[in-house]
Design goal:
This protein is an all-alpha fold. α1 crosses α2 and α2 runs antiparallel to α3. The radius of gyration is 15 Å and the shape is globular.
Amino acid sequence: MTGNEIFTATNRENMKTIYGATGNKAFSELEADETRQRLSRLEDALTRETDENSRERIRRAITAHRERLKQI
């Protein structure tokens, strides 16, 4: 609408929060798709990372994303 990416992202997050909480399937599926995409990128990053501290942080993030997908 305005071309402002921050405004757009903020409103998208607000819509997911509000409509997802009311059980609106479209927004719940949107959040699930975005979570799956992030999870895929994290799994790719885990295969490339060599530092063990970084690998552990990525593993925790992967676990959190998988848990979020179960909640959605």
